[in-house]
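Re: How this chain folds, sequence and tokenised backbone to follow

Filed under: protein folding, tokenised backbone structure, sequence and structure records.

Contents: The amino acid chain and a row of whole-number tokens, matched residue for residue.

Body of memo: The sequence and its backbone structure tokens, given next.
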Amino acid sequence: MCDTNKMEIDDSVYKTLLESTKAIPWKIDWQSKKFTYIGPQIESLLGWSTSSWHSVDDWIERMHSDDRESVVNFCISQSQAGNDHEADYRALKKDGGYIWIRDVVHVIRKNNEVESIVGFMFDISERKKTEEKLIQLQKELEELSYKDALTNIANRRMFDSILKREWASAQRNQQPIALILLDIDFFKEYNDHYGHIMGDDCLKQVARILSNVATRPRDFVARFGGEEFVLVLSDTDESSAIKIAEECRREITKHAIPHVHSTIDQILTISAGAGAITPLNNSDQKDFIRQIDTLLYKAKLHGRNCVIHKASQQQAILTPPVALR
């Protein structure tokens, strides 16, 4: 009876086992940097015959140019240090296409010196496609989490993030930052008279109009909540902020959205509070928002369809400016 603990398996058995897997085995002599073996599966995967894999130069040349430098430098440094490692990269197929490969590498040492490296190549293209889909889905979900579902502009969460970023920039560069809070006048009455579907359409129209006013690359408009909207304007002083707020008010009236409960010509109007600040180290964002919110409240008390600004807290009476910024 055979003693399995002492049974010897010749090289041909190992070779058969290796070549029957989907993983592609390979071995490189460290001194010569030449392939001493590569599995025949490589030809069905990449199209290159086993005889075409002479040295590491062939491995390097058959790697996507965007991956080449970082992967090669990483693998060489890890191999020199005697560390087993893994690397993902896009491998060139003979037909000109690319597929994702994961190389799992084991370093063989002799007398404390690297003698050779052996490993397996795995086709991870499907896994990469799945990962890319998940990343895209995550990105879309993140975008949705920062977008108001009704108006399709930014929401309050995005506003908080943008204000924090722009505030830090204004503080660092000692530049003014402006804030405009806007509220649709008599919006409850609008909903009561026209219905909530028309109310939703109204909010969408106002969002589009305000977005068309805030046109500079860093101008930001969001739905603040309910029928309130907010503009964050970087590098904008108070006089410019008032002009932009007034332009918003005029554009809304110009579109003549019907509103029977309005105080002016039975069309929809908005009120706004506007102000600017050059933040100091001890300046408080929340306090600034409260100030602008108070100005908006005063605009509503003042009779609506007006802009109250931070400095004078008086109604801003402006002629149409030639250049708003």
Observations:
- The CA atoms of residues 260 and 266 lie 5 Å apart.
